[in-house]
Amino acid sequence: AQKITQTQPGMFVQEKEAVTLDCTYDTSDPSYGLFWYKQPSSGEMIFLIYQGSYDQQNATEGRYSLNFQKARKSANLVISASQLGDSAMYFCAMREGVDSSYKLIFGSGTRLLVRP
Amino acid sequence: GAVVSQHPSWVICKSGTSVKIECRSLDFQATTMFWYRQFPKQSLMLMATSNEGSKATYEQGVEKDKFLINHASLTLSTLTVTSAHPEDSSFYICSAGGIRPGELFFGEGSRLTVL
Question: In whole angstroms, how far apart are CA A52 and each of B57, B76, B103?
Fold first, then answer.
């Protein structure tokens, strides 16, 4: 069963506007971590934001925030004030367990295109 | 600077040859590293978990005899694609976790093209 689901293959957003990228997950483990990565055409994986299952507050990192809805098992990424450089693939990922020895599983990704 | 480094960043080889890709943690020790493969326009698919000093754990459907993983030290894991064929052409990327729960570092990736 797929554990990480990104239902938006592609998204458009106007420059300077906010955009939400959807991510839902499925796990029975009470301890887990949720990650968002950006992958530009160069291929490198750029870490954006992390949310632990026990974190009380939604994670924020600059223009990135994670809308963590635990009961709904969703972890949407919100990018505020979009920039042209935000155009890239975005992957949501989950790790069951918080230890770094646990594997990270990725969603199918969302391609974001920022229009000038 | 990068905390996980991969080498080579790209490689072209002939069908039937073997290719080794290195993944190094530069400023921390990693008892566990992960190897992913990414085909064009697709997501990262976990191939195996590399464990220092023991055998790697392969995901279902990944041929362990074809993708040899060695994790001989706390800072180095290698992936060897044996008898490579054109269908093995892909982007291979490794990752390693840090101490804190949210720390997970990726290498720059290695693009393999098998002719």
Answer: 25, 28, 11
